[in-house]
């Protein structure tokens, strides 16, 4: 495995608690003796090496290596016996051996500036094998302790064709261990091996973790410890407790890179845009339009000319309702939405329907919160002019079958708007694949500042729209008789826009591009599964919205407690959740409730956040009123 390939391996935890959740038990390991012998052969061949770092007289204390076997996870099965030291030999491994081990990676640790076999600290009880996460330098066990820093040598076998001894590669990583925690090793503290103590029976089910590969974005790994350090507000304390931010569906926190970019803009670039010849205007204009290009790339839009900056998803929907709807919706026409929309995707259409004499029709959902596609299609017909639907429900987390719904609507000649406010932070978005006519989202939902949002529109759809607001920046020529407007997107950006926060949105997209949205989606999905399992252990808790396809939003009610009581109790422990109707009253009433408690996840949350939430709820329930 090359360095670049290793850099693409994702990571799903940064702590002992998170890494206990890694992977199911696996079977027996391959022949460790052969592996150690190959290691000895390699190190013997290196200049200045008399023998492998693994060869030593005190054989029972030597490290035992667990290979990843292509899954990125070690095998945790029966304990390995203590191994004798392997003698050094004078040649590299044969082509057959190199070929047999192709594609398998091993980690051989050594204590910094010391002998790897005589000064490694004992681990656990005598003879117990304990897995260690080299990314966080901690043991992975129910009761974990920190370890000293290690240098680490990687021994890798590249799957070359034809295989040769040249495929044996060693790399030394001084001082700091690598951040990818898909590499582990096992250490023995004695000669009588015994299994690692099983976790308590009441522990939550393990969170499956696999490498998350994103071949397009090899520049940075998704390593949760590093990600959390990028968000300074997570070091805040609330009521004397570390902040646990689980109100991400309302707004997300900002990485340091976004904060720094805003500061840099105001220190070095602040100016109005487009209409001046001086240097700062040029800098501000470049930064603003560069952000537009980044948004187009983020959504996979064909052109930045299809990206309109607005205040947020709400303003974007209203812009379409006023700029497109007032021109094309007539009396007797129909607008179709779904039962799980945010108020922002209901009220503008009600207002338009009332003004035009049109009809608003609502697609139902089942008891899990999933769109009933057959019923949705029954609502479509020759009078359907617009379909507006959420991609992810803000109250339930349901991921709608947006692709299919867009296709269905287009068969009847309707335009389609997709509300992506709750989708953009959880999953990759491709507007060309969706084939929607309009797509909207808010920057503050995706780690950018408040007050900035996006309307994407197909060129022909934008061309059918009239400006909603008039003023400077959106005109070609003005006389007292008439005004000639700029083409899209400028015609929809009247006045001085939110320049700095658009630049901040570009910085947030840079941050996500470095991580890779595929990596984010995979990590959050596993965390959502873990959180769902944890909440179901709380007595008297009822989940609202149990669709098979969900993003990181959970809603629940707790028997015997009002939702505001639950929110207040969690706040006393530093845990921020949302309690209320979440601007989705029709959605919640479909499930017979007026309000819920809504913890919602983002890429910087981890298993410890979930454990604290579950423990807080169990404690509240046990105390009663």
From TrEMBL:
GO biological process: cysteine metabolic process
Region: Disordered, residue numbers: 1-28, 109-128
PROSITE patterns linked to this entry: AA_TRANSFER_CLASS_5
Entry annotated with the keyword Transferase: yes
Pfam family, one: Aminotran_5
One of the record's GO molecular function terms: pyridoxal phosphate binding
Keywords carried by this UniProt record: Lyase, Pyridoxal phosphate, Transferase
Cofactors (names): pyridoxal 5'-phosphate
Record-linked InterPro entries: Aminotrans_V_dom, Aminotrans_V_PyrdxlP_BS, Cys_dSase_SufS, PyrdxlP-dep_Trfase, PyrdxlP-dep_Trfase_major, PyrdxlP-dep_Trfase_small
Domain Aminotransferase class V: 244-613
Catalysis performed (reactions): (sulfur carrier)-H + L-cysteine = (sulfur carrier)-SH + L-alanine
E.C. no: 2.8.1.7
Function: Catalyzes the removal of elemental sulfur and selenium atoms from L-cysteine, L-cystine, L-selenocysteine, and L-selenocystine to produce L-alanine.
UniProt family annotation: Belongs to the class-V pyridoxal-phosphate-dependent aminotransferase family. Csd subfamily.
Family matches, as NCBIfam families: f2_encap_cargo1, sufS
Record-given protein name: Cysteine desulfurase
